[in-house]
Amino acid sequence: MAIPPGAIVPGSLPKFRIYVYSPKGRYVLWAEDGNRVTVEQLLKLSEGGYKQVFVDLNEEFKYEEYLEANLGGILENEAPSDEQKAAIFSKVSANVVRGAFETSLGMGAMSRDAIQRTQRMVKNALMFIAESNSMEALAKMIGHDYRTYEHATKVLWFTVAFLKENHDVMESIQSGQGTFDGDQNKGLLEQCGVGALLHDIGKAFVAQNILNKKGPLTAIEWEVMKRHPLNGQAMLLDTDIPNFVKKAVLQHHEDFYGGGYPMGLEGPAITVLARVLRIIDVFDAMTSRRPYKEPVSPMQAAQIMIGTPPGDDGENGAGEDKRDQGMRQCFDEKLLRKFIVFLGNVRLNA
């Protein structure tokens, strides 16, 4: 399995073997014990033009555990590019969400360990977004396949980056609390990030054949799918996650002008964080490759979301899909405008 050399932090690796791929087309043992890798060896590797090294597939689990335990150090390391860091971040985040799904499915609720893993993941996300050009790296993920775990990672990324740039929105999430100082803002941002990463946790109880179905869902399958916000809230009830986050998980499919699910709420009855998640959830779904539809560009997605689909040139079929009709009623228009301005500021590919 290929890994970037930047993922190797000297002195912190578990005992797995690392290989390089030789010009002769063979995997050559480079380090028998990861803990013995030195800074000098890594510099020589970089000077030799090696952009990836390899670990045995049998030791993949050890490597993934190492990544999660050392993610903060890897993201602070100047050696890896932002694109490499983004790939590592995405892999760890997807594993955290996958672990939350799998453990929750067995217990019917989120475990304390799963919550703590999620919270650590979000803290690292905030650090990465604050200290790098991570949004540019994220832009390269636009158009990738839509999978529940990877989707959760991108919703997390977009949510915390958007809220960091819109303090008025973030403070309205906890209205009535007065002016927030730096520490309070950071704490609130972390809580919102946890909600973003776990917004679809209720899908742990939706069968894979429904989640991955290429054609339209049957009426029964759709009713099963519509339960996932309720399942998600139930799974979080006994955790110490703040109530406004639990409400956001419950309400992230409610439409601002009515017609959403599971409760058919409208307008101010929907919490601000849920309204933000509604926008970002849809944006990522539209710009990702799904089993039944090719992705649209960020610009096309924004046009469809505000109710002015692209011209009749038929590109990607974006303006013709029935799933996109009437989308404008889903969103808080003020928040949607702010999100579109945010997209322009981070310069995602049109």
Task: Describe the fold and architecture.
The protein contains 16 helices and 4 strands. The longest helix is centred in the first third of the chain and has 26 residues, at about 80-105. Residues about 310-320 have low confidence and may be disordered. With about 350 residues, the protein is mostly helical. It has helices at about 40-45, 60-70, 70-75, 80-105, 110-130, 135-140, 150-165, 165-175, 180-195, 210, 220-225, 230-235, 245-250, 270-285, 300-305, 335-345, and strands at about 1-5, 20, 25-30, 55. It starts with a strand and ends with a helix.
Anisotropy-based shape = globular
CATH topology of the largest domain: Hypothetical protein af1432
Topology, number of strands = 4
Specify the CATH homologous superfamily of the largest domain.
Hypothetical protein af1432
CATH class of the largest domain: Mainly Alpha
Radius of gyration computed on alpha carbons: 21 Å
Order of helices and strands: EEEHEHHHHHHHHHHHHHHH
Number of domains: 2
How far from one another are the termini?
Answer: 33 Å
What is the residue-averaged pLDDT? 82
Number of helices: 16
Low-confidence stretches: 312-320
List keywords for this structure.
350 residues, mainly alpha, Molybdopterin biosynthesis moea protein, domain 2, Hypothetical protein af1432, 16 helices, 4 strands, 4% strand, globular
Helix-strand blueprint:
Elements: E1 2-3, E2 18-21, E3 27-31, H1 39-47, E4 53-55, H2 60-69, H3 71-76, H4 82-107, H5 112-131, H6 134-139, H7 148-165, H8 167-173, H9 182-197, H10 208-211, H11 219-225, H12 228-236, H13 243-251, H14 272-286, H15 298-305, H16 333-346
Antiparallel strand pairs: 1-4, 2-3, 2-4
Helix pairs in contact: 4-5, 4-7, 5-7, 5-9, 7-9, 7-14, 9-13, 12-13, 13-14
